[in-house]
Design brief:
The complex is a heterodimer of chains A (278) and B (294). Chain A contains 14 helices and no strands. With 278 residues, chain A is mainly alpha-helical. In chain A, α3 (55-64) crosses α14 (243-277), α4 runs parallel beside α8 (140-164) and α9 (170-177) packs antiparallel against α10 (182-193). With 294 residues, chain B is mostly helical. Chain B contains 13 helices and no strands. Classes of the chains: A mainly alpha (278), B mainly alpha (294). At the A-B interface, α1, α4, α5, α6 and α8 of A face α1, α3, α4, α5 and α7 of B.
Amino acid sequence: MEARKRAASILTYTLLILSFAIFVFPFFLMVVNSFKNNGEILESPFSLPTSLNFGHFAEVVDKMNFFVSFRNTVVITLLSVLLIGIFAAMTAYYMVRRPTKFNNGLFALMVASMIIPFQSIMIPLIYIYGAKLHWIDAAPIPLLIILYIGFGSALSIFMYHGFVKSIPYELEEASLLDGCTRAQTFFKIVLPMLAPTSVTIAILNVLWIWNDYLLPSLVLTKDQDFTMPIKMKVFNGTYMNNWELLIPALLLTILPILVAYLFGQRYIIRGVSQGAIK
Amino acid sequence: MITEKSRLKSLGNQLFFTGPTIIFFAIAVLIPFAYGLYLTLTDMTSPVNPIKFSGFGNYKTAFTDTAFWESMWLTVEFVLATVIIINILGFILAFLVTSGVKMQNFFRTALFTPNLIGGLILGYIWQFIFVQTLPSIGDKLGIEWLRLGWLGDEHLAFWAIVIVTIWQSAGYMMIIFVAGLVNVPKDVMEAATIDGANAWQRLRSVILPLMVPSFVVTVFLTLKNAFMVYDVNYSLTAGGPYGSTTMVSMHVVQKAFTENIYGVGQAEAIVLFIIVAVITGLQVYFSKRMEVAA
C-alpha cells in the first residue's frame, strides 16, 4: 500500500512538472531571447543570453511608442471596468428590489443577449457608428468605453443579481425609514456589501478588456489611440520575422499583466472559479 | 418592501438606477442587433451607396457561398478537436493539482498563466516557436516533421491553431474543474472506498457523475470560444496558407471589411449566431439532464 502510494505521488509529480515545463516553455523562450540579437536567436534559441543587453528593449519602447499604447490600455480598461461595475450594481440592485414587469423583462432580455456573439453585431455596429454617425472619427476612445459598458453589462448584472438577492432587506429598510433616499441607501449600505462580488466581476472584465483585439481594432484607427494588442499587431507587420525586436516587444506587452498576476494571483484564480460557477 | 410614495419619485429612481445601463446596452447591443437584421435584407455593397431592399437574397447567397461553408466545416473540426482535448486535459490537470501533493497551488497558478494573455499576443509568441524554434530542434536532431515550417503547411497549420488554443484554455478549465473536485463530498468517497471500489471505479461511478455541473460550464465555454475563434487564427496564420485555415469568424470579417459586402457578411454572421445558439442550447439542455445529486 505504501509503495503504491509512493509510486502514485511520483507519477503525479512527473506529470505536473512535465505540464509545467510545457506551459511555461514559451515564456522562457521570450525571456532568454529578448537579450539576444538576430544571429544569436537563429543560432541557439534555447541558450541563456551571454549578456544582459537591454538595448533592444529601449529600441522597442521608442519604436512602438510603448508608453502611449500602455496608457491607452490602462485608461480604457480602468474606466470601462469601473463604470460597468457601478452601473451594473445599480441596475441589478434595483431589479431585485423593484421586480416590476418592466424590470423583470429587462433582466430576461439582458441574460438572453449573452448568447449573441460579438461577430454577429460588429458589422452593423461599425456601420452605424462609423459610416453613419461618424462617432468613430470624432471620439473613438469614449465610444469604445461606451461599447464595453454595453457589452459587459449583461454578465455583470447577472452576477450582481444573484448576490443582491442574498442580502437581507432589513438593513436597507432601516436606512430608508431613517429618511435616506434609495440612492443614498444603495451607495452607503448596499454597495459596500457587494465588494466581494465586485472584485470577481472586475477581474473578469479586466482580463477581457485588457486583451481584447477585434473590437478595438475596428474602432481605433489612429496610431495615438491604439491599445497594446493593436500596437503589437502593427509592429509585427512592420518588423516581420525581425525577432530581436519582436520578442522584446511581445515580452513588454505581456509584462504588465504578468506583474499584476504575481501580486493578485489568489484573487484572480478565485475570481475566475467563482465567475464560472454562476 | 418599501415603495416610493409618489409616482414621480418612483420614475426618478427607475431612471437613475437603470437608465445608464439601458442606454449603453441599447447602443452596443440592441440597436446594432436590430439594425443588423435589417441590413441582411438590403443589398448594400459599401457604406456610401444608398440602401436597396433585396428580400432574402443575402441569405440565399450565404447558403450558396462555398467559401463560407468551407470555413464553417473547418470551424466545426476545430470545435471538435479543441473541446474534446481541452476538457480531458483540463480535467486531468485538475485531478493532479487536487491530489494533495506539495506545491499544488504553485502548479495551479503556473498552469493558469496563458489565460492572462490575449489570443492575438499568444499567436505571435507561438509564431516564434513554429517558425524558428521547432525547425531548429528538427534540424539538430534530424526529425523531419519538426523541420517543416508548420505554419506553411495546410494541415499542420490547422493543428498549430489547435495546439495554441489548448495551451491557452486548458488552465482555465482546470480552475473550474478544481472548484468542482474540491466539492466532491469526502464521506461519499470514503464510503465508496470502504465498499471496495478501486480508483478507476471511484472516478467513473462517483467523481464523474458529480462533476457533470462543471462539465456543463466548461463544455459550454469551450464550445462557444471555439466557434468564435478569431484572435489566434489571425495572428498565427491569418487564414493562410492559401486560405486553408480561414475559420468562420475570419471569413465574416473579411467579407464585410475587406470585400465590403456588408449584407451577405451580416447574413452569414446571423447564420453563425443561430448555429451557435442552437448547439450550445442543446448542449446545456442535455447535459443538465445528466446531473445527479450527491
